[in-house]
C-alpha cells in the first residue's frame, strides 16, 4: 500500500520491529509502545531515528516524556468505524505540542482523509489505486469548517466575526 506524505506518494524508510526482534544495524525503526517503555533509554540513545506505533486504546500521555526524541507516531485505525486515532492525533498536536510525523495506518478510507489532515495527520498508508488523486480531492473538497482542529484553519465563525469587525471599522 502506498504511503502518502504531504499529499504525495513517498518511500517508507521505516522498519517495523516487532517486540522481541533485534533492531537493524541502521535506519529508522518503528516499535510498539510496550517496547518503547521497556527499552526507551537504549532506543533513544542509539543512532536510530525512533518511531512508536500506538494502538487506538493507548493514551498519548504515556509517551509525552519522549516526544522530543520520537520522529514518527503511527496511529492505528483497526476498523473504519473506529475514530479513536483521530482523538489521539488531536491530543498529540494540541495538548502535547508534538511536531513530528503522525501517520495513519490500518483501514484508512478516502472519505476520512480530510478529517485526518485537520486532526493532525501528515502521512497515511492508504489502499487506493490512484492515491495522490484521492488525496488531492479529499484535501480540498471542503473549504469551510464549523469546528476548530489541530490544523488551526479558521472556522466559519471566526471568519464571520472578522468580517463583521472589518465592516464595523470602516
Description:
- With 170 residues, the chain is α/β, with parallel strands linked by helices.
- It has a single domain, classed as Aldolase class I (TIM Barrel, Alpha-Beta Barrel), CATH 3.20.20.70.
- The chain is built from five helices and eight strands; from the N terminus they run E-E-E-E-H-E-E-H-E-H-E-H-H.
- The protein has helices spanning 33-45, 84-95, 113-119, 131-140, 156-169, and strands at 3-5, 8-10, 15-16, 29-32, 50-54, 70-77, 101-106, 123-125.
- It has an eight-stranded mixed β-sheet.
- It is elongated.
- The mean pLDDT is 86.
Could you give the topology of this structure?
Blueprint lengths: L2 E3 L2 E3 L4 E2 L12 E4 H13 L4 E5 L15 E8 L6 H12 L5 E6 L6 H7 L3 E3 L5 H10 L15 H14 L1
Parallel strand pairs: 3-4, 4-5, 5-6, 6-7, 7-8
Antiparallel strand pairs: 1-2, 1-8
Work out the strand percent: 15-25%
The coarse silhouette is: elongated
How much helical structure, as a percent, in the residues?
25-40%
Main sheet summary:
8 strands, mixed
The CATH homologous superfamily is called Aldolase class I
The computed structural class is: alpha/beta
Uncertain segments are none
- Rg, rounded, reads 18 Å
Quick check: average pLDDT? Answer: 86
CATH fold-level name: TIM Barrel
User: Could you give the count of β-strands?
Assistant: 8
CATH class: Alpha Beta
Give the strand order of the largest sheet, numbering strands 1, 2, ... along the chain.
Answer: 2-1-8-7-6-5-4-3
Structural domains: how many? 1
Alpha plus pi helix count: 5
Q: What order do the helices and strands follow?
A: EEEEHEEHEHEHH
Q: Report how far the terminal alpha carbons are from each other.
A: 54 Å
CATH-scheme architecture: Alpha-Beta Barrel
Amino acid at each position: 500500500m502506498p504511503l502518502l506524505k504531504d499529499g504525495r506518494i513517498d518511500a517508507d524508510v521505516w522498519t517495523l520491529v516487532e517486540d522481541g526482534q533485534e533492531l537493524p544495524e541502521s535506519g529508522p525503526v518503528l516499535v510498539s509502545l510496550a517496547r518503547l517503555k521497556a527499552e526507551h533509554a537504549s532506543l533513544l540513545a542509539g543512532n536510530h531515528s525512533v518511531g512508536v506505533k500506538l494502538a487506538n486504546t493507548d493514551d498519548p500521555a504515556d509517551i509525552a516524556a519522549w516526544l522530543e526524541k520520537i520522529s514518527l507516531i503511527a496511529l492505528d485505525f483497526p476498523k473504519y468505524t473506529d475514530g479513536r486515532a483521530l482523538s489521539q492525533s488531536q491530543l498529540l498536536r494540541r495538548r502535547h505540542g508534538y511536531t513530528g510525523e503522525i501517520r495513519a495506518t490500518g483501514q484508512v478510507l478516502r472519505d476520512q482523509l480530510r478529517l485526518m489532515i485537520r486532526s493532525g495527520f501528515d502521512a497515511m498508508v492508504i489502499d487506493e489505486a490512484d492515491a495522490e488523486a484521492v488525496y488531492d480531492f479529499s484535501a480540498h473538497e471542503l473549504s469551510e469548517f464549523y469546528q476548530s482542529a489541530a490544523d488551526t484553519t479558521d472556522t466559519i465563525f471566526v471568519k464571520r466575526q472578522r468580517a463583521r469587525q472589518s465592516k464595523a471599522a470602516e
